[in-house]
């Protein structure tokens, strides 16, 4: 079978309208897509998703794709929010689709791959070659792992500082958690380190080694004493505030644009509506290259219906387990099919869940045809 970003996007939208939330497609005025899984250098994934609006006759839906590594989904979200807050808003709803297929060459990184599609803010955007995909004939990225970790940490610092500066100007206090994937525990500890730099006399920092106080910023990015000290200090807070959110990236692997929002789904699924009321949730979103933001929102109103519709645990339990060799062969199948035309994909659609869209044909002009698993 051949998974593609628009397949995932179609399924994501169908899950949320009209059947489960009873939303009339005519009430949708904007559809934003964040993805780095590029199928066409010109035609957007959003335009493919417009097939879902055909029956309703609604073609007046603004928005296209946003691309910047794992950050595209966040920028798509900001676009949708800004539209609702603007004079251009016509009163209709906005949908954001953030999804990708994370695929790596055979080796240590391959098991981390995956696929998925599920306030105030401070941003940090600069130029860096930490992770990029310059070869359009291949789906695999070029990754500078150590440099990427440093870029990520610098982005945490800059976004958190910008967020706190703006928050101070607005005279509002945040107490949320940063949801993410991979480096999330270290980034959460890094935020506590930034709090320490702002107020080292706070009693909670009484046992922080004295030499950390005047340490050069550049050195702090790789200093193991800094890392260990604040990982230890943040351990209990991490378990209470962040651990409930990392179930999806832990169980499903990297989802690029969808990772941070999969974490949000996990938070809504694992923390009761009562416990979430009035709480502020902080989200740090990072995309290599690089673009990043730290933003937050406050929970108001019941989240019970979201919990019910997400149905997270049942979805995780329904996954099919295969041997690593089978997954390798699936990846090899994708590699052989990449950029092919006049092609019918191999694979058994009987392994798919009912209602799943799957590719049946790519014609000699690269036009794609899909079917729905009954």
UniProtKB/TrEMBL annotation:
PROSITE patterns, per the entry: HMG_COA_SYNTHASE
Coiled-coil segments on the chain, per record: none
Chain positions recorded as CoA binding sites: 148, 186
Ranges of residues in domain Hydroxymethylglutaryl-coenzyme A synthase N-terminal: 21-117
Pfam families reported for this sequence: HMG_CoA_synt_C, HMG_CoA_synt_N
Catalytic activity, reaction form: acetoacetyl-CoA + acetyl-CoA + H2O = (3S)-3-hydroxy-3-methylglutaryl-CoA + CoA + H(+)
Top-level taxon: Eukaryota
Transferase in keyword set: yes
Documented EC number(s): 2.3.3.10
GO terms for biological process, alphabetical: acetyl-CoA metabolic process; ergosterol biosynthetic process; farnesyl diphosphate biosynthetic process, mevalonate pathway
Active site: 36, 70
Residue ranges annotated for the Hydroxymethylglutaryl-coenzyme A synthase C-terminal domain, each copy included: 120-373
UniProt keywords, alphabetically: Transferase
Matching SUPFAM superfamilies: Thiolase-like
Principal EC category: transferase
GO molecular function, one term: hydroxymethylglutaryl-CoA synthase activity
UniProt family annotation: Belongs to the thiolase-like superfamily. HMG-CoA synthase family.
NCBIfam families referenced in this protein's UniProt entry, alphabetically: HMG-CoA-S_euk
Function: Catalyzes the condensation of acetyl-CoA with acetoacetyl-CoA to form HMG-CoA.
Protein name: Hydroxymethylglutaryl-CoA synthase
Organism: Aureobasidium vineae
Lineage of origin: Eukaryota, Fungi, Dikarya, Ascomycota, Pezizomycotina
